[in-house]
Queue: 3 jobs
Job 1
Amino acid sequence: MTDLESLSHLLADERLTDAEHEAFESMHGYILAHGPKLTPKQSAWIRAVASRLELDAGELTGPAFASGAIPVGKPVAVPAVLRVLPLKPPGRKST
């Protein structure tokens, strides 16, 4: 769930304090005006308030891969062919 959806979900809850409601309303307006970017601290605060209010934490986390719902496969070794690739492309030839 995105920050915008999380904020909409929290703003609908009546158990928020006045200060939280005002701050979340401000964040919601900022996202609508400037795009979906909140600081990591703001996103953490949203998750903390949601857990305090005992809202469904699964809805407020990121993608399934980040939350651990999708298992990570075992790591593989880098093939020898890929280890010898040049770091930069060759320069231009001058004529």
Job 2
Amino acid sequence: MENLVHSFTASPVVTQLQFDQTPDRTQSELALTIQEGDALTHLRMRNPTPAEAIFDIVDASRIWIEDEGSTQKEFGRYKVGYSDEAYSEFWVDSVENEPD
């Protein structure tokens, strides 16, 4: 994980998950609030793919985001990985920290 952007390893809890998309499904946005201890992190991510993979993140015991730079994938620059009993991932075009 050389290009680590965020890492939540101390029993993170997803306290908020909001997913919005345009009617034609060409653009989407995911807003997450992750609590780790007393710290809250608010993230906004654009175009999560595959979208159906995002909902299992609420059960994750570990979450990390890596900047994959110029990959050969046709979508997504950032890989959002998470695990509990199994590993899952989805890709997003951008990740932004939101203020409290």
Job 3
Amino acid sequence: MSYRPSEIEVFAASELGLVAVLTTSLDALEAQLRFEHRTHEDPGPNPAPVLAQALAVLASTAALRTELRRYRRSVLRSLAPGRRPDDDPSF
């Protein structure tokens, strides 16, 4: 399930709304690819080119999700009371 930012979070960091939209879109893409390419869990030694590309997309979406979670956490930490964004070395 995708993270849904609060209105306050979106007001303070509007990009979190877009991150939520992107994450939801990734959910839909992954579900559709898994449906269309039911052999994705056991592609065999020589998967068809389209299946191979679907597997690459699934791997890429997993990596992108990880980076989006890290970014969201970094933004939320910077919004914590008593902290200024320029105090956060992760930016």
